[in-house]
């Protein structure tokens, strides 16, 4: 009877080992499936990204991009020149010409409108009070 019980114990241990191996295999298969699903999502994302890039390339040609870059560089150069002028990098000849133009403008007789001879009203209109609005209350989101 003891021998029969030992055989039965040995058989159940072998059965448990086989079951553990099968569970390990199933877990490995589940992990492989999950990893494959993630890979598929990555590939799908790359595919969508590729399609978007192709559409952008159809809309924007190389010539268009080069034209935009050239215009931007021209605008930057123009702005740099303006900055240099405003920063006082004018030559003495430029400054002399500017002073002469300023003198010519200030020496011209300008016709100014006549100033009214009537006195200004002394009443100062009262400022209308600003109505105080109730401040909105902050409510915590739940």
UniProtKB/TrEMBL annotation:
Q: Which Pfam families match?
A: Snf7 (PF03357)
> Which residue stretches, if any, does this entry annotate as coiled coil?
none
Cellular component terms (Gene Ontology): ESCRT III complex; multivesicular body
What is any one GO biological process for this UniProt entry?
A: late endosome to vacuole transport via multivesicular body sorting pathway
Name the keywords, alphabetized: Endosome, Membrane, Protein transport, Transport
Q: Where in the cell is it found?
A: Endosome membrane
Stretches for region Disordered: 109-142
Record family assignment: Belongs to the SNF7 family.
What is the recorded name of this protein? Answer: CHMP6 protein
List the source organism. Answer: Anseranas semipalmata
Ranked from the top, the taxonomy reads: Eukaryota, Metazoa, Chordata, Craniata, Vertebrata
